[in-house]
Recover the amino acids of this structure.
């Protein structure tokens, strides 16, 4: 009997101990989790009254729309090239119609040789004012400092040509008509490639494929055909001019410039030669633009596919 | 007496079970909130970065975008003449 009572007592004590151990374990777990919750709350200062799921949804949508905008911006270069191609295609179509006299319009390509000069700023401003796009046959003979203003940097103008939508063309790096440019095909091509690289560097990648021989293609003399072959191999087309005000020579007055210009203009499509350093040309440029427009000319920048570009 | 002690112990055990269960539930709620909060923060920083990228690309491509606009205008003008 006493044995049975002792066994029961032992059982009771064991049960009691088990319950106590389990209860204290749970109490320990309780405080452990509570501590973990406090740690989480301290480390992350979130607002428990906010509905984060809807915020996440809203922010995800916002992010997607920003990413979409970024992609569109990223493709702007592609879009720009596409627009340029469309533009030149339309120009070609227009030029063909003008050449075939299918429409009552004429085309004049204003071209400026030997720049950039400090005076080019004025020329560019006038062209902007009259909403005209032209072609600049550039050379680097004068170096970085402007020939007509030693304090100004003329290389910056390459970006201006591009920014304002003009065609940048090659007029060789040296323009050295009297310093060996036409001594051999190689020396000519070296000057072409050097200027091509120079334009690319100054504009951040502009690739030109139009060239004008310094002094005109006749200056190349017996080398002309071999130079043209080399130019063709490099993807270049070349152009002389069909009209000019004579500002590359000894032009003395605006009257003389006007006479030269008016007497040389008449065809449906004209490539007009100017020099962007010439002050007489700059002074008559607004009137020249108005005059050409009054004669039904539209003024365009040269492009490789043009029939005026020899290939 | 023993019975009373056992009942008290069972009650205490039950109560502790309930309290622990409640804490576990609270922990999972807090954890979910923290995960969502972290995700929100991550999205916010991504948005900020994306906005910065947009600004950068707009600045770096300013000239290009202006040119694009100019060319589009020129194209329209030519098309009008055709």
């Amino acid at each position: 009997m006493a044995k049975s009572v002792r066994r029961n007592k032992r059982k009771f004590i064991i049960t009691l101990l088990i319950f106590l151990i389990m209860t204290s374990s749970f109490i320990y777990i309780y405080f452990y989790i509570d501590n973990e919750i406090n740690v989480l709350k301290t480390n992350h200062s979130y607002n428990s009254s906010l509905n984060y799921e809807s915020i996440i949804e809203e922010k995800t949508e916002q992010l997607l729309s920003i990413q979409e905008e970024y992609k569109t911006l990223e493709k702007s270069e592609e879009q720009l090239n596409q627009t340029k191609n469309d533009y030149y295609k339309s120009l070609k179509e227009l030029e063909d119609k003008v050449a075939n006299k299918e429409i009552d319009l004429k085309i004049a390509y204003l071209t400026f040789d030997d720049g950039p000069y400090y005076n080019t700023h004025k020329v560019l401003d006038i062209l902007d004012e009259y909403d005209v796009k032209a072609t600049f046959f550039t050379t680097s003979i004068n170096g970085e400092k402007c020939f007509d203003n030693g304090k100004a940097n003329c290389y910056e103008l390459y970006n201006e040509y591009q920014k304002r939508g003009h065609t940048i063309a090659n007029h060789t790096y040296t323009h050295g008509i009297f310093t060996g440019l036409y001594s051999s095909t190689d020396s000519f091509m070296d000057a072409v490639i050097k200027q091509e690289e120079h334009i690319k560097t100054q504009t951040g990648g502009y690739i030109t494929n139009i060239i004008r021989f310094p002094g005109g293609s006749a200056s190349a003399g017996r080398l002309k055909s071999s130079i043209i072959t080399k130019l063709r191999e490099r993807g270049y087309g070349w152009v002389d001019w069909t009209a000019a005000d004579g500002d590359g020579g000894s032009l003395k007055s605006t009257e003389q410039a006007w006479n030269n210009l008016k007497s040389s203009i008449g065809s449906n499509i004209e490539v007009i030669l100017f020099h962007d350093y010439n002050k007489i040309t700059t002074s008559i440029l607004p009137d020249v633009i108005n005059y050409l427009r009054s004669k039904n000319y539209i003024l365009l920048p040269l492009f490789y596919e043009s029939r005026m570009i020899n290939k | 007496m023993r019975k009373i002690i056992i009942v008290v112990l069972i009650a205490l055990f039950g109560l502790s079970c309930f309290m622990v269960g409640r804490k576990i539930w609270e922990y999972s709620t807090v954890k979910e909130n923290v995960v969502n909060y972290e995700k929100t923060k991550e999205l916010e920083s991504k948005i900020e970065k994306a906005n910065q990228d947009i600004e950068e690309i707009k600045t770096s491509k300013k000239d290009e975008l202006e040119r694009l606009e100019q060319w589009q205008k020129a194209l329209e003008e030519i098309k009008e003449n055709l």
